[in-house]
């Protein structure tokens, strides 16, 4: 980098926006002082020469990186404010562009520090692939549950050997189980029977049903006591309420929504 007086003159001539008025502002002096530096035999003051060298280096680096994408920031200010910034930069031994960039970066870091730390997102739940057996009727019969239709991922710790997923088809179990929602079911063990209040999957010759198990007392026969018998009901009151459980054996209990 040529920082001789001739080298400085050549540098100024290469850039239309670089003239002696501009250089005087960067160095915090009047234009006639710059004229004296470049025309008299006396050496340029060391402090001013450091500023000029920094300006020339910045231009050289910019020229070398022209092929890289650049972002440009234009700051419009009054002449008085610009002079004040130039004096502040000179007091720190910086050129005004470096001074301004440092101030902007400092303000940005302060803004980041003032913001609360982001709340970490909940870790993803453990997913397990359960057998997916298609749809179950919630209002009308669906296909039998004997066809493996692949798998369905659900969060939790279920055993794929005893649990599976169904898609609700119908509105008889709304609002608890909307139409087209998915449920996780557990197969009943041999000799096991569902408990009162459980949501269950039952199946007859027409297909599979999604219902809730309750106990209702039959009408008295003669003088004998009324007996509580199991019934399968819909949650949605718009659908038929009672199906005798004896006519529709229970295959599984619903343990959660998928």
Q: Give the ordered list of helices and strands.
A: HHHHHHEEEEEEEEE
Radius of gyration: 42 Å
Helix content: 25-40%
Shape: rod-shaped
What proportion strand? 15-25%
List the uncertain runs.
none
Determine the oligomeric state from the structure: single chain
Explained architecture:
The protein has 258 residues and is an alpha+beta fold. Helix content is 30%, strand content 24%. It has six helices and nine strands; from the N terminus they run ααααααβββββββββ. A nine-stranded mixed β-sheet has the order 2-1-3-4-9-5-6-7-8, with no helix packed on it. A hairpin with a 2-residue loop joins strand 5 (199-204) and strand 6. Helix 2 packs across helix 3 and helix 5 crosses helix 6 (96-114). The two termini are 70 Å apart.
Which helices and strands, and how do they pair?
Elements: H1 5-14, H2 20-27, H3 31-39, H4 46-64, H5 79-91, H6 96-114, E1 127-137, E2 151-155, E3 163-169, E4 182-187, E5 199-204, E6 207-217, E7 228-233, E8 243-244, E9 250-257
Parallel strand pairs: 1-3
Antiparallel strand pairs: 1-2, 3-4, 4-9, 5-6, 5-9, 6-7, 7-8
Helix pairs in contact: 2-3, 5-6
Tag the structure with descriptive keywords:
single chain; 258 residues; alpha+beta
What's this model, at a glance?
This protein has 6 helices and 9 strands.
